[in-house]
Amino acid sequence: MSWVVRNIKWIMLISGVLTCTMLYAAIAPNAALEFMFGETLQGPLAEIVVRNWGMLIGAVGLMLIYGAFNAHVRKLVVVVALSSKLAFIGLIFAFGANYLSKTGASILFDAAVIVLFVMYLVGVEGEGRAAKGG
Fold it and tell me: What does each C-alpha distance from 97 to 71, 82, 105 come to in angstroms?
């Protein structure tokens, strides 16, 4: 875990840049849906929801990049990103099993990031307790 704590800046930076690629959904919602799920949604509501989804995921990516360079917000940013990635994976398994083949790479990436972020949170808490003598 100490390796993760020592390298969290780079882990957050790389995962943030890759997470920011979902800003593509805000620019080209149908292309992003086709790439991610193999299907598209049609209509004005789909345009709004998918573009907003892309912006929110992109914002998490930007937060990760910001947190990589600003240690005072790292735990908060990691918890937000971890929650977002857990929600995506949970929703796919709960409601989108037929999309597993298309979303597999994203799920594996998000799962790896989740593991690293949990390791960071556990490791940084352990360091904090050790520093306080507890």
Answer: 37, 21, 14
- Reduced DSSP (H G I as helix, E B as strand, rest coil) percent helix, strand, coil of the chain, to 5: 90, 0, 10
What range does the domain containing 28 cover?
2-131
Contacts with 28 (C-beta within 8 Å, 6 or more apart), sequence order: none
| One pLDDT digit (tens) per residue for the chain, 134 residues | 799 999 999 999 999 999 999 999 999 999 999 999 999 999 999 999 999 999 999 999 999 999 999 999 999 999 999 999 999 999 999 999 999 999 999 999 999 999 999 999 999 987 767 767 65
What angle, 0 to 180 degrees and rounded to 10, lies between the N-to-C axes of helices 100-131 and 29-37? 90
Q: How many domains does the chain have?
A: 1
